[in-house]
Amino acid sequence: MRAFELVTLLCLGLASSTYIPLWKPWTKLILTHHWPETFCTMEHCKEHYKYWTLHGLWPNIGIACNSSWKFNMSEIQDLKPDMDKYWPNLLHPTSAEFWKYEWHKHGTCAATSESLNSQHKYFSKALELYKMFDLTGVLTKAGIVPAEQNYQTDAIEAAIEKAFGAKPKIQCVHPSAKAEQVQQLGQIEICVNSDFKPIDCEKSEDDLWSRVNDVLLYRFRGVRGFSVCDLNMPVHYPLPMENF
C-alpha cells in the first residue's frame, strides 16, 4: 500500500473514531523526543524548557486501536510529577489532553503487549525509557549543546549511536525558503525492540507509523512539521528562551 493511501486510511479512521485493526503485533517501539524550543517556534508555548521532553512512545504498528478504552487520569496520578516535568503539554501545561491523545492513539495499540497492557504500565514505561536514554545528557557530553553555531546531522547521530549502540532517527524543521541554508533540530526518535533494547531506527518511507503524528498534527494545519534531517545541510540547535 502506498504511503498516501495509508495516511488517507488512517485519517478516515481517526475522523470516524472507528477501530483500526492490527494486522500483526508490533515489533518495535519508538521513543520520541521533542526539542521544545523548535516546537515553540511553530506554536505559542506557555513555558520553555532547557532539556528534551517526551513526545510519545509509539508502537510501529497500529493506531487508535481501541476507542472504547478511555483515558483515566486517576490511574496514573502517582506519575503526574514526572509527567509534568518530562512529558509536558507545551501548549496547555495544566491540561491532560496531550496524554489522553497519546494514550488513545498509541497507548491502546502498545497495550496489545502484556508488558504495556494498562495505562499505568504504558506511561511508566515511557518515563522509564526516557530516563534510561538520557538524550540531553548524551548530547551535552558530546559537546552538542544549544548554541549560535551549527552542527552536522551525522555528528549528532554518531554521538547518540555511541551512547546507545543503535542509530536514532533525527528530524528537523526544514527551511521554508530556498535561500535559507540551515535546518532546525526538532525531534529525535530512539527505537527499542519488544524487550526494550535499543535497535536501529528506520529512515525510509516504509517506516510510516513514526511519521503519522507529524502528518496529522502539523501538515493538515498548514504548519511546517518534522522530517528526516538533510545530511548536506547544517543543523541549528536553538537556544531555549527564558520563561516569561
Overview of the molecule:
Its main location: endoplasmic reticulum. One of its GO terms (biological process) is rRNA catabolic process. It contains eight helices and eight strands, in the order H-E-H-E-H-H-H-H-E-H-E-E-E-H-E-E. It has a single domain, classed as Ribonuclease Rh, Chain A (Alpha-Beta Complex). The chain is globular and about 50 Å long. The N terminus is likely disordered. The longest helix is centred in the first third of the chain and has 14 residues. Strands 1, 2, 3, 4, 5, 6, 7 and 8 form an eight-stranded mixed sheet that branches. Strand 5 and strand 6 form a beta hairpin. The protein has 244 residues and is α+β, with helices and mostly antiparallel strands.
Mean pLDDT: 85
- Gross geometry: globular
CATH topology: Ribonuclease Rh, Chain A
CATH homologous superfamily caption: Ribonuclease T2-like
The CATH architecture would be: Alpha-Beta Complex
The tally of structural domains comes to 1
Q: Main sheet, how many strands, which sense, barrel? A: 8 strands, mixed
Uncertain regions spanning at least 5 consecutive residues? 1-22, 213-223
The helix fraction, in percent, is: 25-40%
Gyration radius (Cα, Å) is 17 Å
Strands, count: 8
Q: Which class in CATH terms?
A: Alpha Beta
Structural class estimated from helices and strands: alpha+beta
Taking the alpha carbons of the first and last residues, their distance comes to 47 Å
H/E topology pattern: HEHEHHHHEHEEEHEE
The number of helical elements comes to: 8
Share of β-strand residues? 15-25%
Main location: endoplasmic reticulum
GO molecular function, one term: hydrolase activity
Catalytic activity: a guanylyl-uridine-RNA = a 3'-end 2',3'-cyclophospho-GMP-RNA + a 5'-end dephospho-uridine-RNA; an adenylyl-uridine-RNA = a 3'-end 2',3'-cyclophospho-AMP-RNA + a 5'-end dephospho-uridine-RNA
InterPro entries: Ribonuclease_T2_eukaryotic, RNase_T2-like, RNase_T2-like_sf, RNase_T2_His_AS_1, RNase_T2_His_AS_2
